[in-house]
Design goal:
With 112 residues, the chain is mainly beta. The chain has one domain: Immunoglobulin-like (Sandwich), CATH 2.60.40. It is built from no helices and 10 strands. The protein has strands at 4-9, 14-18, 21-25, 34-40, 46-50, 54-57, 65-73, 85-88, 97-99, 104-109. The protein has a 4-stranded antiparallel sheet, with no helix packed on it. Strands 5-4-7-8 form a 4-stranded antiparallel sheet, with no helix packed on it. A hairpin with a 2-residue loop joins strand 2 (14-18) and strand 3 (21-25).
Length: 112
C-alpha cells in the first residue's frame, strides 16, 4: 500500500490596510485543519495559528513595510509557506489590496 503526503502549494490571496491593522485573507485549502500566519517588519519574526481564512495584524505603523507569509497545517504536517508578500502600509487611511492567484494542491508519493 502506498502512503501519500499532501503538499499544499499555498498562495496568499489578499492583504488590506484599514484603521491601523492589516487584514490578511486567503482561500480555504481542502484538507487543511488550520493556517499559520507569519509576519514582521524586517523578517517573519511573529506567527499565529488560526482555523479561519482571515487574520488581523493589529497596531501596524503607517509607512512601514510588513512581510507576510501563510502556510496550512493538518495532521500530517505544515505545508510550504506562500511566497513572502511585502506590503507597505499606506501613510493615509486608504485601502490597499494585493491579490495573488488561487492555491493548488499536489499529491506526492513518499514511497519513491
Amino acid at each position: 500500500m502506498n502512503k501519500y503526503i499532501i503538499i499544499f502549494l499555498f498562495t496568499l490571496i489578499s492583504v488590506n490596510s484599514l484603521a491601523g491593522h492589516l487584514i490578511v485573507t486567503w482561500d480555504r485549502i481542502e484538507d487543511a485543519e488550520g493556517y499559520v500566519v507569519k509576519y514582521g517588519t524586517e523578517n517573519l519574526t511573529s506567527h499565529a495559528t488560526t482555523s479561519g481564512t482571515q487574520f488581523k495584524i493589529l497596531n501596524v505603523i503607517e509607512g512601514r513595510t510588513y512581510f507576510i507569509s501563510v502556510s496550512s497545517i493538518n495532521q500530517l504536517k505544515e505545508s510550504r509557506s506562500s511566497k513572502i508578500l511585502k506590503f507597505k502600509v499606506p501613510a493615509k487611511r486608504e485601502t490597499k489590496s494585493l491579490e495573488i492567484p488561487n492555491p493548488k494542491l499536489i499529491f506526492q508519493n513518499i514511497n519513491e
